[in-house]
Amino acid sequence: MSADNCIFCKIASGQLPAKKVYDDELCVAFHDLTPQAPTHILIIPRGHIDSLDTADSGQREVLGHLLLTAAEIARDRGFAEAGYRVVINTNSDGGQTVFHLHVHLLAGREFVFPPG
Ligand code: 5GP
Ligand code: ZN
Which of 11, 34, 50, 66 to mutate to test the pocket of ligand 1 (most atoms within 8 A of CB)? Predict the structure, then answer.
């Protein structure tokens, strides 16, 4: 998947609407269209990366930033102490359906482990 026809690139640039909760120069966070928990937020890099599988060491800063942003959103929205789940589905067996790398931030219920 290239950046040309990528729905998350379009959300990042504002070409497609989304319920944004946070954005900065490196990333955008918005509510998932089909939430799997009372809170389900996606955090994406502004620049297109297909998946964790194709990320490289030149993207260390943005990859770290996605995780720190997830933790910041969790604290700001008041569910950090109760807890939350962070997920990066990768490729087919990992359940990835949108090939623009994204961090799922899920909260508001208990999660089982291992996931299905
Ligand atoms: P994946 O399965 O790739 O890990 O996660 C993709 C996620 O993107 C899914 O949870 C799906 O509900 C969400 N999603 C797909 N298309 C859209 C969209 O157009 N807008 C929003 N907000 N979420 C989307
Ligand atoms: Zn993209």
Answer: 34
